[in-house]
Amino acid sequence: MKYAIIGVEGPHDQAFTGKVLKLLGFKDFREELKGLNSDLDPFWRKFIPVYPKKGNLYTRLNMPSILFNDTISVAIYAGEGSNLVTNLDDILFVNSECQTNLAAFGIVADCDKSTPDRIVATYSNKFRSYFPNFPVNPGVVDTNSPRTGIYVLPDNQQQGVLDTLLCECGQIAYPAYMEKASSYLNEFSQSDIKALKWKNFDQKKVLIATVVSVLKPGKTNTASIADNNWVSEQTQQKVPALANFIQFLSQLLEVS
């Protein structure tokens, strides 16, 4: 069995990346093996969080999602937003096995406050100490061992977040709901938006959350991304940015 780590910023990105891997034929450890500790591959035991984390009873536990096929097991690690670099660095620093036995190491990051090149530079400068061939360009997979790469959402070119890409997927998967949600949100004036203190890309996030509330009342975006058709064969065929992300993961993990 080969092993790979994909670092993402939060639970939405984690669900999104996991749904793409399922589209590529991967199985979910939590679904297939009920997430039982006794069935966890020994390689991933170092990722089991210790509770309470740093003594804080309310800190989120960061157990990765684990998906696998017949040849490779992949941990999707959500690194608490901007803390992803630091948290992954800590894991790699204290676990030399992660460095020497990985078949692939990848990053999925948002581009909400910078440019794709600057986002890549932050990760490349840190992780080149572990993986000397880690790419300096977004969306590129280096095929040396281990294979490495970073994908900057939404499309390695423009500023945006996961929700920017999900809006494109929603126009294909749920056009009627997207239209109705957009019509509702258009009733908010600029003074309303200012009073609500929406930041860059918050309107995209609100649009997705509104449709999610229709698709899965009372559930989170994470649940909808995992269960609904934001990521599907249909959206893969009609949303170039999604197709590119799927191709990136296929190259990183050497799957088709």
How many helices? The count is 12
| CATH level 3 topology of the largest domain | Rossmann fold
CATH architecture of the largest domain: 3-Layer(aba) Sandwich
CATH class of the largest domain: Alpha Beta
Low-confidence stretches: none
Shape: globular
What is the share of helical residues?
40-55%
Question: What does this entry look like structurally?
Answer:
- The protein has twelve helices and seven strands.
- It has helices at 11-23, 29-32, 84-94, 96-100, 116-127, 162-173, 175-185, 190-196, 202-215, 221-227, 233-238, 240-253; strands spanning 2-8, 27-28, 65-68, 72-78, 102-110, 141-142, 147-153.
- Helix 1 (11-23) packs parallel to helix 10 and helix 7 (175-185) crosses helix 9.
- It is globular and about 55 Å long.
- The protein starts with a strand and ends with a helix.
- 37% of the residues are buried.
- The mean pLDDT is 94.
Topology at a glance:
Elements: E1 2-8, H1 11-23, E2 27-28, H2 29-32, E3 65-68, E4 72-78, H3 84-94, H4 96-100, E5 102-110, H5 116-127, E6 141-142, E7 147-153, H6 162-173, H7 175-185, H8 190-196, H9 202-215, H10 221-227, H11 233-238, H12 240-253
Parallel strand pairs: 1-4, 1-5, 5-7
Antiparallel strand pairs: 2-3, 3-4, 6-7
What descriptors fit this protein?
45% helix, 7-stranded mixed beta sheet, alpha/beta, Rossmann fold, 256 residues
